[in-house]
Write a structure and sequence with these properties.
The protein contains eleven helices and no strands. It has helices at 23-32, 38-68, 79-121, 129-136, 140-171, 173-197, 201-208, 212-222, 227-263, 271-315, 317-329.
């Protein structure tokens, strides 16, 4: 008797195939992942983006209103008026900067939730928002700290370059102008290069629980060899959503202008015109907010898929994910996190194409040569002609024969009867 193993179902497919991915697959799945869990991905992102937008708008508006209304009690042109004006501007700018950082922190939390969701969707798992937050919560402050550190580094670099250009401008203004143009032109490729090299740091913090320094080093290592596909995907997604925002914003601007023209044909501002302008601005901001929410989700999804693809190519993550799926579907519980296993493992590079199977020449069986045809010799003079070897067959008759029963040979046959 042979004992056969119990049948187990095949691994369920996730949102991406578990093998190294192509450029088109990463780009297409980045948009298609919204259908996997729209309530968590799109709904959560939209709510957080709306909360951040209202936080910045209301906070900056309240501070500006409270500070600039003090100018009504002062006489314009006095030293006190100028001091209050400068203080109000500085206070409003500081408030906008601080609230902008807070809004950025909320955006980072959205990115963390999306990255965790895509990582689970790759192995055909669909978690609730609470379960995803429990995964992101231990590293949330580390993720926020990384984003603040990155913003501080960028701000420090810009301030240093601006201070150097201003100092040069006092000595030689044309040189400062030329340096400003060069710096602006060099800032675009430099920002694209740095943002791509650091693209996978948030995913490393979320999925591997790496430190900030370790996440930066991991991103720098993993993106090696996949820099240009990652850069192309991020640029294409940014261009797509930028174009969508511009195209959708044009009809709303026309709508606002048309309503204002209809309500105030003489050009005098009135309550109706102010209401039309407010409605147009609100609608434009709502649509822009929706587009930004979708853009945040798609960009975070693309970052997650690029991270998984880089680890599959460099560390064989697909092997760990397939093993995790097989053990899970066979009934195993409390499995270790496949994304935290074998971190840093280096496998042999996989061939992009396999060589063709060499054709073999099989020996042909030996065939004996056939003799050449030789016509028979002509008959000798006076010899009798050869007789026909086969006589012509006699002419056969296919006329039907009559059947007679035995013992009825002498019976009288009626030629007119059909039965005779």
């Amino acid at each position: 008797m042979t004992a056969y193993p119990a049948w187990t179902p095949a691994p369920r497919p996730g949102i991406i195939p578990l093998h190294p991915l192509t450029f088109g697959t990463i780009l297409g799945r980045s948009f298609a992942a919204l259908r996997q869990n729209p309530r968590v991905l799109l709904g959560f992102a939209l709510c957080v983006q709306a909360a951040a937008y209202l936080l910045v708008l209301l906070g900056v508006g309240a501070v500006a209103l409270a500070s600039f209304t003090r100018l009504d009690t002062l006489r314009e042109g006095t030293d006190e008026f100028e001091a209050v004006m400068a203080g109000s501007i500085a206070l409003t700018a500081i408030t906008a900067f601080v609230l902008g950082l807070a809004a950025g922190a909320l955006g980072v939390i959205v990115q963390g939730v999306v990255v965790s969701e895509v990582a689970h969707a790759a192995v055909a798992e669909k978690l609730t928002l609470r379960a995803l937050w429990q995964r992101v919560k231990p590293v949330a402050w580390r993720l926020i700290g990384y984003s603040l550190l990155l913003a501080f580094a960028v701000l420090l670099l810009i301030s240093a370059v601006a201070a150097a250009i201003v100092a040069i401008g006092f000595a030689a203004l044309p040189v400062a102008v030329g340096l400003t143009i060069l710096v602006v032109l060099a800032a675009v490729p430099l920002s694209l290069w740095l943002s791509t090299k650091l693209l996978l740091a948030p995913a490393s913090i979320i999925l591997e629980h790496a430190t900030i320094g370790g996440a930066i080093a991991r991103s720098w290592t993993l993106i090696r060899g996949r820099f240009w596909p990652a850069l192309g995907i991020i640029v294409i997604i940014s261009l797509v959503f930028g174009t969508i925002a511009q195209v959708i914003g044009i009809p709303f601007s026309f709508l606002t202008t048309g309503l204002t023209t209809i309500l105030t044909p003489t050009g005098d501002p009135g309550p109706a015109a102010i209401v039309a302008i407010i409605v147009g601005v609100v609608l434009t901001q709502v649509v822009t907010l929706l587009i930004q929410s979708v853009a945040v989700v798609v960009q975070a999804t693309a970052t997650s898929i690029i991270y998984i693809d880089c680890r599959m190519r460099r560390e064989g993550l697909d092997i760990d994910l397939l093993g995790y799926i097989e053990r899970r579907d066979s009934g195993a519980v409390e499995l270790p996190d496949p994304y935290r296993a074998n971190v840093g493992r280096v496998i042999a590079p996989r061939p992009t194409s396999y060589p063709a199977y060499p054709a073999q020449a099989y020996p042909q069986p030996a065939t004996p040569p056939y003799p050449a045809y030789t016509p028979p010799p002509p008959p000798a003079p006076g010899a009798p002609a050869p007789s026909a070897a086969v006589a012509a067959p006699a002419e056969q008759s296919f006329a039907p024969t009559r059947w007679t029963a035995p013992g009825a040979a002498d019976a009288e046959i009626d030629p007119e009867s059909p039965w005779s």
